[in-house]
Amino acid sequence: MPETLSSTSVGLVTPQVARFDTPLMLACGRELPAFELVYETYGTLNETASNAILICHALSGHHHAAGYHHIDDRKPGWWDAHIGPGKSIDTRRFFVIAVNNLGGCHGSTGPSSENPATGRIWGPDFPLMTVTDWVNSQAMLADRLGIARFAAVVGGSLGGMQVLQWAMSLPERVANAVVVAATPRLSAQNIAFNEVARQAIRSDPEFFDGWYTEHQTLPKQGLRLARMVGHITYLSEHSMGARFGRDLRTDSLNYGYDVEFEVESYLRYQGDTFSTRFDANTYLLMTKALDYFDPAGEHDDDLPKALSTATCRFLVVSFTTDWRFAPARSRELVDALLRAGKHVSYANIDSPHGHDAFLLPNERYEAVLGGFMMRIANDVERAAGDNS
Amino acid sequence: MRADLALIYDWVPQGARVLDLGCGDGTLLAALSSQKQVTGYGLEIDSDGISRCLEKGVDVIEQDLDQGLANIPDDTFDLVIMTQALQVLRRPDLMLDEMLRVAHECIIAFPNFAWWRHRLSLGIKGRMPVSRSLPHAWYDTPNIHLSTFRDFSDLCRMQGHTITDRAVGNGSREGQWRHRRWPNLFGQDAIFRVRR
C-alpha cells in the first residue's frame, strides 16, 4: 500500500525468532520443555541498554506492532499510530521490542506448534497460559537481548495486564509502566462475554475438541461468532451508531435473514476475515488468560497490597466510551496505586471509539502518552550522558 | 514561579507528602519535588495542564474536584494545597472538610472579592469586577463561589478549623505578599494556612 514509506514509519521490518531450550514452569503446574518466541524490534539499543521499551499485545495482537513486512502490505503493524520516528513511542530515542505471546498463532510456540513429546501438534493439549507465564517468558527474551531493565513496559487491554504483572513480579526490571484501557481484574460481565465466545467455538461441529487440524478442518463458524460478539464489546454504541446507524445494504427491507443492515454486513465481514487468520485454540487460551488475571485475588482481595512490590512510575490511561474495560476499572487501579503510595498518573481520554480507542490515533491520547514517554527518554539520555 | 506559588513553596515543609488540588502545569509540585524532596500528586482536569505535568515527571491524576476526594483515605498526606480553585467549586465548605480529612493541614489561595478595587467596581461603578485575579466577564466566569478574606476566616472558624497563617498580596508582583494591616481591603489575593 505505501508507495513510499513516510518519515514517521519504522519502515520495513523483519520478525526474528528466539529459541529457548530451558524449560519454563507455568502457573498451571505444567512446564514447557522448550519454546520459541517471535518478535520485532524498532530503533537502536543504546550502549547501556537503558532505552528499551517492551510492547505487550492484547487478545488478538502479535509481534507486528509497527512498520510493514512487505512494501505492498495493505496495513502497517497494529500500533503503528503510536510507534515510530517522532511518534509517542519515538523510535529515534527508544529501542522497542514487540513479542508474540506464548500460545499465540503468529509464530511463537502455541497450540499450532508441534509437541516434541508426541510429534503431533499441541492442539488443545497446549497448556493454558497466564499473564504471569507470559511475563516470565518475555523476561527470558529480555535476558537474551541483554536488557536488564526496561525504560518502560507498555500495553493496552490484555497487554496492560502484562504491564501490571511486570511491575509487580519483576519490579527491578521496570522503570516505568504504561497501562492503557485495562483493568485489574475482569468483571462478571467480561467473563460472561468471553464464555459466549468460547462456547461459540467449542460447539462448532468442526472443532473436534480442539483437534480440528488433524481433521483437516477449521471451526470457522464458531470463531466467526466469537469475533462478532467480541467486536461488539470493542466498539461503543455511539461509534456503531455513527458509522452504520440503521443504514440498509438493500434498497428496502426484504423480510428475510440475509444481510440487510450495514452493521450486520460489517460484523459478518469482521468475523469472516478473523475466522481464517486466527487459531481457535489460541483464542480460547487468550480469553482464559484474561479471565484468570486477578492480582488482588491472590492478596485477600487487597489490590494495594498486590501492587506493594512495584517500584516503577505508572501511567494509567482509559477512554470515556470504553465499556469493555470502563474508565471506572482504571480508576480502581489508580486509587489502589495511590493507596499503595506509588508514583501514578492518570488520564481519561475523550474518544467516541470505545475499547478500540487504544489502538487509534487521538490528539490528546498522543499528548498524554507522548508527554510521559518524552520525560522517560529525557531521563534515559540524561543518565546515559552522566555515565559517559 | 508565580508570587503566590513562591509563598506557598516557602510554607511547605521539607519531605512533606503533598496533594495539590488543581495543580495546573505542575510548576509548584515539580519545584517542591526537586528541591524539597516532597512527594505527592496533583489533581487536574485541564488536558493541557495534565500533559505538561507528565512532561515534567509530576504525578498527576485526572480528577474532577467537584466529585470530592472520597477515593483518598484519611491522613494520606501531610498537606493539601489548593490555589485559585476554591471559587469554582460547587461546595467549597465540603471541600475544606475533605482537605482536612486527607491531611492535617491545608494551604488555600483564592481571589479576595473585598479588595478595594473590586469594591470600587461594584460599589461605585455598579459593575461586576474584572481584574487580574478575576479576569472573566460575569457571563462566562467559572467562578461560582466568590468570597472575601473575612468570609473565609469565618468559614474556617464555623467548621472548627484553626488558621495558623495567612497572607494577602498582589499575585502579579513579586515581594508584595505580606500580612497587611487591612487584609480584607488591601489584599487582591488571599492565602490561608489552616489546620484541623
From TrEMBL, chain A:
Organism: Kushneria indalinina DSM 14324
Record pathway: Amino-acid biosynthesis; L-methionine biosynthesis via de novo pathway; O-succinyl-L-homoserine from L-homoserine: step 1/1
Gene coding for it: metXS
Protein name listed in UniProt: Homoserine O-succinyltransferase
Residues of the active site: 157, 322, 355
The protein's role, per its UniProt record: Transfers a succinyl group from succinyl-CoA to L-homoserine, forming succinyl-L-homoserine.
Cell inner membrane listed as a keyword: no
Catalytic activity: L-homoserine + succinyl-CoA = O-succinyl-L-homoserine + CoA
Keywords: Acyltransferase, Amino-acid biosynthesis, Cytoplasm, Methionine biosynthesis, Transferase
All residue ranges annotated as the AB hydrolase-1 domain in the record: 51-358
Residues binding substrate: 227, 356
Major subcellular site: cytoplasm
From TrEMBL, chain B:
Pfam families attached to this UniProt entry: MetW
CDD domains found in the cross-reference section: AdoMet_MTases
Gene3D superfamilies tied to this protein: Vaccinia Virus protein VP39 (3.40.50.150)
Domain of life where this protein originates: Bacteria
Transmembrane segments: none
InterPro entries per the UniProt record, alphabetical: Methionine_synth_MetW, SAM-dependent_MTases_sf
The name this protein goes by in its record: Methionine biosynthesis protein MetW
Organism: Kushneria indalinina DSM 14324
